[in-house]
Amino acid sequence: MVVVAPFSAVDPERRKSGDAADVVKRRRLPLSDFASEDTKLAQAHAYWNSKRPNGLLPTRRDIDIVDLRPLIGFMHLVDVVDAAAGHFKFRLHGTRVRLGQSFSDNVVENISSKAMRDAAVEDYQSVCFTGVPCYQHVVALVDFVQYSYSRLILPMATDGRTVDSLMICINARKFSDFSI
């Protein structure tokens, strides 16, 4: 078992203003350790891995969303506009993912919770800069509502190397050893 210290992002401005003190904790796990509750995420990772020509990253065209039918409502496709600046745009947002807001603005910078936005940008940047998928357990308290889910962030690249889009798969679940 790998023990990983969770990261917390707390929005101090919201705390000062009297609004909810939003908190996001993430625990990164090895890709070899998918929990039994995260079978769909493990299958998505295996599918993504099968689309890697010669070990390069797959392109978005290599990924057929229909092949991932069980995850369609729980998946986002995100375009990388400028990873260094933290600019990411939702191309497809899983309609069954509820994080207390609408994603009609389509850009990560417009996520209303600063803690959630900062955590997403940090995680997306990490995957963009390394080209390595990320499997996490996430717990969050946003506007006094608790969220708990597993997340898999998979990089894709038109040239096989420079990440230009992300496929993000979500599995809502509780954790007995990880909470807010």
How would you describe this structure to a colleague?
The structure is a single chain. This protein has a seven-stranded antiparallel β-sheet, with helices on both faces. The chain is of the alpha+beta class and 180 residues long. The relative contact order is 0.23. It is built from three helices and seven strands; from the N terminus they run βαβαββαβββ. The model is unreliable at 1-12 and 14-19 (pLDDT under 50). β6 (145-156) and β7 (165-172) form a beta hairpin. The protein has a domain at 7-30 and 72-172: Beta-Lactamase.
Question: What labels would you give this structure?
Answer:
7 strands, seven-stranded antiparallel sheet, 19% helix, disordered N terminus, Beta-Lactamase, globular, alpha+beta, single chain, 180 residues
Quick overview:
The protein is α+β, with helices and mostly antiparallel strands and about 180 residues long. It has helices spanning about 10-15, 40-50, 115-130; strands at about 5-10, 25-30, 75-80, 85-90, 135-140, 145-155, 165-170.
Which structural class best describes the helix and strand composition?
alpha+beta
Counting DSSP H or I runs of 4 or more residues, the number of helices is 3
CATH topology of the domain at 7-30 and 72-172: Beta-Lactamase
Measured between the Cα atoms of the first and last residue, the distance is 21 Å
Poorly predicted segments? 1-12, 14-19
Can you give the mean pLDDT?
83
Q: What is the tally of beta strands?
A: 7
Q: Return Rg in Å.
A: 16 Å
- Give helix % range: 10-25%
Strand order of the largest sheet: 1-2-5-6-7-3-4
Q: Per CATH, which architecture of the domain at 7-30 and 72-172? A: 2-Layer Sandwich
- Name the CATH homologous superfamily of the domain at 7-30 and 72-172: PAS domain
**CATH class category of the domain at 7-30 and 72-172:** Alpha Beta
Summarize the helix and strand pattern as letters: EHEHEEHEEE
Largest sheet: 7 strands, antiparallel
